[in-house]
Automatic annotation (TrEMBL):
Residues 35-123, 129-241, 240-355 form the C-type lectin domain. PROSITE patterns: C_TYPE_LECTIN_2. This is C-type lectin domain-containing protein. Gene3D superfamilies: Mannose-Binding Protein A, subunit A. It comes from the Eukaryota. PANTHER family: C-TYPE LECTIN DOMAIN FAMILY 20 MEMBER A-RELATED (PTHR45784), C-TYPE LECTIN DOMAIN FAMILY 4 MEMBER K-LIKE-RELATED (PTHR45784:SF3). CDD domains: CLECT (cd00037).
Length: 357
């Protein structure tokens, strides 16, 4: 067995061991926020004000797991506001897979234009960390149907430049001229707290974004939680969320940041899956420094990168050539671009992200 293969096996075993033995927040189920169902009738803006005063904001939703949690937090089976509204501003491009950021519209202008005419779908299934297997679905569907199919049967529509322009996509086509859907869409809907989360769960029998003039979103608990919209002044129950992460806009060394988080909150954040990465990305956008510290550092005695929560690195988002191992190295997340990870010297000073609970 090659050395790299042995290292992969050891890492996977360590991941399993830490998940089963540590007794801490398991990275398969760990959530960075709590939902609260409020059984008071308020307009969307009244609900927004209430959530901001009592919690963090009106609820935002990252994925289907969040939707299950949202529905399970309510006994009511009617309609309830969530934190999405149509600003009427510029329509922004998003990847269907939530944690991938669109760098620029120009770089994808060819795909964007062709996207209106694509007729097949390409879904992918996540395998080992950072490895995706693409599947060409040769069935005619519209974009929304293709997205639903891929999410139900695989993971999502192909998202991000590595997938849509990668060699595996070209291999799938095998030289055949073909138009396919990819996971890129645009709309003018925004989350109340300013997040760029791209997850959408519209009930297409009741909702038409192109013709719709109702600008506040609600979840229909009696229709599997799918979404529609209504006039914002209507009175409804609503969902708030309480955030687990906080961005500290003070420049500190990694060790000083660690001490601050441990003294005032739980600790520096550990990123153990793409969802946590997505939430960290949202926080990082508001930083005053080029990087934000997270709770990952290199332990010379073990020869491993370890989280402050004692997890080994089972998920990562290292930048190309961004990983440098050394006794005085910890990790900063890039404030812009793809919010990748970079090794930085511990004595450099940046903003940082703490975990509250």
């Amino acid at each position: 067995m090659h050395r790299s293969s042995v290292d992969d096996v050891i890492t996977q075993l360590l991941c399993i061991s830490f998940v089963c033995i540590s007794g801490q927040c398991c990275f398969f189920t760990c959530r960075l926020y709590e939902y609260h169902f409020i059984e008071e009738n308020k307009s969307w803006y009244e609900a927004q004000r209430y959530c901001r005063e009592k919690y963090t904001d009106l609820a935002k939703v990252f994925d289907m797991t969040d939707m299950s949690r949202l529905r399970n937090s309510a006994q009511n089976q009617g309609e309830a506001w969530i934190g999405l509204n149509n600003t009427g501003g510029n329509r922004m491009w998003h990847w269907s897979l939530n944690h991938i950021t669109v760098i620029s519209e120009k770089s994808f202008r060819r795909q964007i234009i062709e996207g209106c005419y694509r007729v097949f779908s390409v879904g992918f299934t996540g395998m080992k960390k950072d490895k995706k297997t693409l599947h060409l679905i040769e069935t005619f569907m519209n974009w929304t149907q293709a997205q639903s199919y891929c999410r139900y049967n695989h993971t999502d529509l192909a998202s991000g430049p590595d997938q849509v322009d990668g060699e595996e996509m070209k291999t799938l086509f095998n030289g055949r001229p073909m138009s396919v859907w990819m996971g890129l869409f645009r709309d003018s809907w925004r989350w109340s707290d300013g997040s760029d989360f791209s997850f959408r769960y519209w009930d297409m029998q009741l909702f038409n974004d192109e013709q719709n003039t109702k600008t506040c979103a609600m979840t229909l608990l009696n229709r599997s939680g799918k979404w529609s919209s209504d006039e914002c002044d209507k009175k409804k129950h609503f969902f708030c969320y309480d955030d687990k992460l906080i961005l500290i806009k003070e420049n500190k060394t990694w060790k000083d940041a660690l001490n601050y988080c441990e003294n005032n909150y739980k600790g520096l954040v550990s990123i153990t899956n793409p969802e946590v990465q997505g939430w960290v990305q949202e926080k990082a956008k508001g930083a005053d420094s080029p990087y934000v510290w997270i709770g990952l550092s290199y332990k010379c005695t073990l020869g491993l990168w370890l989280w402050v929560s004692d997890y080994v690195v089972c998920y990562d988002k290292w930048a190309t050539e961004g990983k440098t191992e050394g006794c005085d190295m910890s990790v900063g997340v890039d404030r812009g671009g793809q919010h990748e990870w970079f090794s930085r010297r511990n004595n450099e000073t940046y903003n940082f992200i703490c975990s509250k609970w």
